[in-house]
Amino acid sequence: MRGVLWRLAGSLPALVAVIVVTFVLTRVLPGDTATYFAGPTASAESIAQIRAALGLDRPLPEQFWSYVQALMRGDLGMSLTTGQPVLVDLVNRLPASAELTLVGLLIAMGIAIPLGVLAAVKQGSLADHLCRVIVTAGVSLPVFFTGLLLVYVFYYLLGWAPAPVGRLDAFATAPNFVTGFYLIDAAIARDWETWQSAAAQIILPACTLGLFALAPIARITRASMLAVLGAEFIRTARASGLSSRTIILTYALRNALLPVVTTLGMVFSFLLGANVLVEKVFAWPGIGSYAVEALIASDGAPVQGFVLTMAILYVVLNLTIDLVNRALDPRARHS
Amino acid sequence: MSAVLDVSDFSVEFRTRSGIVRALDRVAFTVRRGETMALVGESGSGKSVTAYALLGLLDAAGRITRGRAVLEGVDLTAASPSELARIRGKRAAMIFQNPRAALNPIRPIGQQIADVLRRHAGLSRRDAMAGAIDMLKQVGIPDPARRASAYPFELSGGMCQRVMIAIAVATRPALLIADEPTTGLDVTTQAVVMDIVAKLAAETGMATILITHDLALAAERSARIAVMHAGHIVEDAATKTLLANPRHPYTRRLLAATPTAAGSLAALRSIPGNLPDLRRDDLPPCRFAARCDRRLPGCDAKLVWRTIEPAHRIACWNPA
Amino acid sequence: MSSSTLRHARHVVSENPVTGLALLLFAFFVGAAILGPSLAPYDPLASNTMRALQPPSALHWFGTDQIGRDIFSRVLVAARLDLGIAAASVALVFAMGGFAGLASGFFGGWVDMLVGRIADTIMAFPLFVLAMAIVAALGNTVPNIVLATAIINFPLYVRVARAETVQRREAGFVDAARIAGHRDMGVLLRQVGPNIMPIMVVQMSLTMGYAILNAAGLSFIGLGVRAPTPEWGIMVAEGAAFIVSGEWWVALFPGATLMTAVFCFNLLGDGVRDIVDPRRRT
């Protein structure tokens, strides 16, 4: 338990770094916030006024302090495009992004881990070759392009998937809010029609993300499985006559999963970025498309809020990965 | 005493990129109930390959090319992989050097023993765990019920080797192969570990093959010693006979290099010449010939194993 | 390059024909980047509304877009910009990350700590999101895309350069140079620098594909390069609207070209790694 608290404290520097960088990006670098707010036609005088009103004429440490205070209050500013506080927008849209990312990750792990295991256990087999191809091709896929390809094939050509218009088709209504994940909320409400609509809508974008995350997970699974299969304790297990099922699943895979879990940190880094692109392609109403819309409208506050949210999310995910790792690895618990 | 394991004409080859390695050539020996036999030789002489090949643990490149190895009436060379998996850990078990690395790092040690009991004795989860705790007690681990939930990294090397032994003998195998079981342990722990093996062997009538490069250990712990050189067993005799009256030139050199019989790897290396390259197509019949000072013209024609006295076999035309 | 390296390179290529294919593609892309504008059959910016959204034909190999521009010409001309951005960012991060890692591993102490902190801070962000933030803050220009792409790769380069330097430093020949009276900076640049070069070249070729993807991704969401400049990411974004109505060629050709380019550079990166550092082969 103390270890867990220690690890929590350990993620503080990352959090501080994230806040400082976000602050620096918004205040110090060119692209003056006051000019931004005043609009292109503003006079120097009105810019100075806005500057004073925003507190931008005060010394930097002071500005940073008021920035941190605002963050503490949950004040991320107002969105010019939606007219809502950025925090409200983000909270409303975050579940959409989270659901998409998680489903994508589940799809990727569901395919990549068995594939990587198979490739390692049966070296030189079809699965091994498939794994190699996926690993090399997978990292070369521009995620926005694969998304479009899937839309073209499965929506336009085959008509299997619905139009890429967001989380639900036009005839469905959002289920009552419980978790914000439509698949879970609709299941709780036993509203299977809505569930089906939500599932149909999420499948293509989630597969796009999944395809993207497939390569790194399959590669690390294969590599770490190969390493573990060569370990001395596997030889012991074989010498003890344990069934190959026990050897591969209980002995090898559990050990091989430790590096896989650690690598998920890197996978999440890519996945959260790819999420922005996929949301744009599929008009997915998450925080990524929110940020892209704000970028196009030169609306600063939502972009800052988005970057901060993503970074905090990433810190939290890394923390979770660490805790999962501790749960899986007794050695990590004791160090 | 009846033979637990009878190996005859046993040959193993490895197919590698740089050619076929003739790792074992017509190896033959017998181990009887309750007996401890030592396989002694330099590294690369084929001691471990013998053990791995017997239990079907060779990697894909290795295969048994001829011979028989009969364990309690079952020919291991003719057994299918799944039959071998049923025999391994049940009727023939193995312990390894570097015990900490040889245990699953993230599985409680009690669980690892229980896994073997569940597989081979068909015990329930609960009974297997009770059996595991009992085994921990038998190998002298204090407070076994609590230690059963410990992980290998929480135990000393000696304790880990006791756990390895517990895993190996949990199902009361007829044969235990101990592959350099004391390497990496300190001297007192070595003695304790070997005592435990001896005690369990005495209690259950288990036969033991002790694989070691340490002639002193072999002399102290085994009733018989088989000396290996480059994939051949060159001399096989009762320990007393072998130490007092070695006949093969290689054995003599081994002993001469270790006057007090306190042989060690460093001492074995002091024998002039190297092991021959086993990939050569024109391997001489006697693989020691190039290093031998008693070589005769006939040595280049054919290698024969001769029983010169009861239970004393050598592979030499011109024994000392 | 010594003759044995050459022989090894030939061995790697002959053993893995895919690397040969990648080399061919590489030559093709470099050719397009250099000669593209003079080879393009049409002006990449010239619109012709009479011929808007034409499917591929003998006249327009890749078809035309919504305002009748020739997609083949645009894809061809875009090679210079896309590959240029990626090459520039890789060169920049090679200089920044390579030097920082070198100094960090060589001097240790506070230099090491500072560089480590900077790298950690960058790693605290999801990388693409950080790149978005940098371009959004610094302004929507091509140099800023280059910079952002370089920055997000910085930690990787630092780590590799640092690890190699520490290894070399411990190898002892740096001490020898110091004893011989060379000043630290000189030792750093002349003795250690060239020694870590091969591994850094591997790193560069391995990250080139990612740099292309990253820049195109930024353009896709409207950052950096602006329409009507021909660039693969923007062209895919423009074509996205037509995918649902069946005009596949508008997005497909720039997208497939982008994908092929990234694939080619990734294969090449693997090939270069096999040649320079066979141990890391997986």
TrEMBL record, chain A:
Subcellular location as annotated: Cell membrane
Residue ranges crossing the lipid bilayer per the database entry: 12-30, 100-121, 133-158, 198-218, 256-278, 305-324
Membrane topology type: Multi-pass membrane protein
Main location per the UniProt record: membrane
Domain of life: Bacteria
Domain ABC transmembrane type-1 per the UniProt entry, residue ranges: 94-325
Protein name per Swiss-Prot or TrEMBL: ABC transporter permease
UniProtKB/TrEMBL annotation, chain B:
Pfam family, one: oligo_HPY
Gene3D superfamilies referenced in this protein's UniProt entry, alphabetically: P-loop containing nucleotide triphosphate hydrolases
Protein name: ABC transporter ATP-binding protein
Family (UniProt): Belongs to the ABC transporter superfamily.
Any one GO molecular function term: ATP binding
Listed SMART domains: AAA (SM00382)
GO annotation, cellular component aspect: plasma membrane
Gene Ontology terms describing biological process: peptide transport; transmembrane transport
Keywords: ATP-binding, Cell inner membrane, Cell membrane, Membrane, Nucleotide-binding, Translocase, Transport
Annotated membrane topology: Peripheral membrane protein
InterPro entries from the UniProt entry: AAA+_ATPase, ABC_Ni/Peptide_Import, ABC_transporter-like_ATP-bd, ABC_transporter-like_CS, Oligopep_ABC_C, P-loop_NTPase
Localization per record: Cell inner membrane
Coiled-coil positions: none
Chain ranges of the ABC transporter domain: 5-255
UniProtKB/TrEMBL annotation, chain C:
Compartments, as annotated in UniProt: Cell membrane
TM annotation in the entry: 21-40, 83-110, 122-139, 145-161, 207-228, 248-269
ABC transmembrane type-1 domain location: 79-269
Main location: membrane
GO biological process: peptide transport; protein transport; transmembrane transport
CDD domains referenced in this protein's UniProt entry, alphabetically: TM_PBP2
Protein name: ABC transporter permease
Organism listed in the record: Falsiroseomonas algicola
